[in-house]
Design brief:
The structure holds 2 protein chains of 2 kinds. By secondary structure, chain A is mainly α. Helix content of chain A is about 65%, strand content about 0%. Chain B has 4 helices and no strands. The chains are: A mainly alpha, B mainly alpha. At the A-B interface, α3, α4, α6, α7 and α9 of A face α1, α3 and α4 of B.
Chain lengths: ~220, ~80
């Protein structure tokens, strides 16, 4: 049974709805506001899927243009942002297909294995471990680590944990079932955690005097 | 609670969607099991680090350039539709 609060949430229109209505009425400045609001997120998502800066820029532009062209098809059953993300995910996959001519590209790549469903490294992390690295080093570590995940896990993690979509919205966006999203999310989180442990583990006095674990010193192997 | 049962509810624990009863069982388990405690804390930290560090940040100049290009294409589309 819905609570009073959830009824209020359902009845409260999302601020994007009014902007979408204005765009439909011919006010293009309202679309400018929507683009400004979500362009960084769309670029990030496209970059995570395509792993290519140029492709991500193209995908971001094409997705916003496609959304503008198809705005009449936006039903309002889902959030405008979720609808936009779905377009960007599809555009990104199309871009990958173009790059890998003849090879299929799907969200199911490399996910049919049980590998990575159990944690392996139980070493505790240093307190605030990211502070042991420069911003550039940290960016390299985080980038390299997430790029090592199978695509079907990486995209679920990015949408759910980085971009803040709900489990249901992630499922709807990727055309997956809710249990499939949950299973992939758990494995993505565990695999990232295991891989980051190589860099962030608490140093014992013996280990601290041994080789450093910064990138370039073999810790990523 | 066993370690396997802990893993089954790990995502719910992180999303704070477990019952008070399960939380009590979890706390009892974590007091005894250092491995699961590390897994919980470091998984939370993994998510926090990825959330707080934008590894694909778009520089302001590029954002402005792409934004202008998008709006120009939309404007053109609008004019074409009305032509």
């Amino acid at each position: 049974m819905p609570t009073i609060q959830s009824i209020a949430e359902v009845n409260e229109p999302h601020p994007d709805v009014a902007l979408v209505e204005r765009v439909r009425g011919g006010d293009i400045s309202a679309y400018d506001t929507l683009v400004r609001k979500y362009e960084r997120q769309l670029f990030r998502i496209a970059q995570h899927i395509t792993q290519n800066r140029e492709d991500a820029e193209d995908v971001m532009q094409d997705a916003f243009l496609k959304a503008y062209e198809k705005l009449d098809q936006f039903q309002g059953n889902s959030k405008f942002y979720t609808w936009l993300v779905r377009i960007a995910v599809n555009e990104s996959l199309m871009r990958l297909r173009k790059r890998r001519t003849g090879k299929t590209v799907s969200m199911d790549e490399d996910v049919q294995t049980e590998e990575g469903s159990m944690p392996r490294d139980f070493a505790d992390w240093a307190p605030n471990p990211e502070q042991n690295f420069t911003q550039t080093e940290l960016g390299e570590i985080l980038g390299k680590t997430i790029q090592g995940l199978p695509q079907g896990f990486r995209v679920v993690f990015v949408l759910r944990d980085v971009e803040g979509l709900s489990t249901e919205e992630t499922a709807e966006t990727l055309g997956l079932s809710v249990p499939a999203v949950k299973s992939r999310l758990l494995r993505a989180r565990l695999q990232l955690r295991d891989r980051l442990t190589r860099y962030f583990r608490k140093k014992t006095p013996a280990a601290a005097s041994a080789a450093d674990t910064k990138p370039g010193n073999g810790a990523e192997k | 609670m066993t370690c396997r049962e802990f893993l089954e509810i790990l995502d719910d624990v992180i999303d704070e969607s477990i019952s008070a009863e399960t939380r009590a069982e979890l706390e009892t388990h974590l007091r005894k099991c250092g491995h699961c405690k590390v897994v919980l804390n470091t998984t939370r930290k993994t998510i926090e680090i990825y959330r707080c560090h934008d590894i694909y940040e778009l520089p302001a100049d590029d954002t402005d350039r792409l934004h202008a290009a998008i709006m120009e294409r939309c404007q053109k589309k609008r004019c074409d539709d009305h032509a």
